[in-house]
Amino acid sequence: MSQPNRKGTLSVASIKLLLTARDRAILQSLYAHKFLTGSQIYNLHFWNHHTYASGIRACNRVLGRLRGHRLIYRLERPMGGVGGGSSSFVWSLDAAGDRFERRTQEGATTSRSRSFVPTTMFLLHTLAVADVHIQLIETERSGRIKIIESQFEPRNWRTFLTRNGSQRVLKPDLFVSLSSADYDDFFFIEVDRGTESIPTLIRKCLLYEAHRRSGDEQERLEVYPLVVWLVPTAARRDLLQKSIDAEKHLDPQLFSICVSDDFRAFIDQRSEPQSGGDGV
C-alpha cells in the first residue's frame, strides 16, 4: 500500500503507482480546464464505452476513487447532467492532485488554492470554454480535423509591447491550432455569454488588434490567428459585428463571430478544402 507523507497526503511517487493512464488523463484535463462537470469528463474520457450507461457507471466509479485519494474534489453544487451521480457535479483538482500535476508537467504554473470558491459567473464561463474544447475533440474523433495544439489560460496569455512601448497582456479564453485536409488553422477563441457590455468586447478586440500589430504571433506562426467570438444569440452576433465594423481602428477581417450553437458547423465548414485557411 502507498504510504502517506508526514502531512497525511501521498507523495508524487506513490500517486503514480495508484493511477491508470485514464486517471492521469483525467487529472491533466482538470489541470488544464480548472473545473469540469462529470458529464464533460464522461465526454472526454468515457465516451467510447460499449453503452452510455456503462460509461456513466465507470465515470462515477473512477471519480469516486480519485476523490477518495484526495486527488480531486467536487463542488457541492449540482449542475444537472444526464445520468445523475458524479456526472451531475463540478469537479476540480484537490491539493494533492494539483501538486502532482505541477510536479509532473513541464512548464506547470503556480498552484491553485483548494479554498478557492468560484463565483457562478466564473464557473459557467469556465465550463463553457471547456465545452468548446470538447466540441473540437469530438470533431477530431470524426476525422475531419486534427488538433495540433490547445492552450488554456494562463499558458495562452501573450505579453507584448505596443507601438508606443507600453507592455500589455492579451488573455484569450482558448488558443488552438488545427489541421484539416489541406490547411492549418489558428484561432484565438473568446466565449461570450452575454454578461459583458458590447463596449467591453470592443476593448478586447482593440487589444487583439494591438497584439496583431506587434508582429509577435506572426513571427511564431507566420500568420495571425483568426479571432473567433462565440456569442449566445444571433442578435448579439449582429450587434457585435456592427460595432466592430464601426470601429475605425479595427480590421473586421481579423474577427469571425459565431453563435455558440453553430460552432461545430463553423469548424466543419473551415475544414472543407475550398473554405479552409490559415489565419489573418
Task: Please state the structural category.
Answer: alpha+beta
Beta strand count:
10
CATH architecture label name of the largest domain: 3-Layer(aba) Sandwich
State the shape.
globular
Biggest β-sheet, characterized?
A: 5 strands, mixed
Q: What is the share of helical residues?
A: 40-55%
Low-confidence stretches: 1-7
Estimate the strand proportion: 15-25%
With strands numbered from the N-terminus, the spatial order across the biggest sheet is 4-7-8-9-10
Listing every helix as H and every strand as E from the N terminus to the C terminus, the arrangement reads HHEHHEEHHEEEEEHHEHEH
Separation of the first and last Cα atoms: 55 Å
CATH fold assignment of the largest domain:
Trna Endonuclease, Chain: A, domain 1
Mean pLDDT: 89
> What's the total helix number?
10
Radius of gyration using CA atoms only: 20 Å
Overall number of domains: 2
InterPro entries: Replic_Relax
Protein name: Replication-relaxation
Organism: Subtercola lobariae
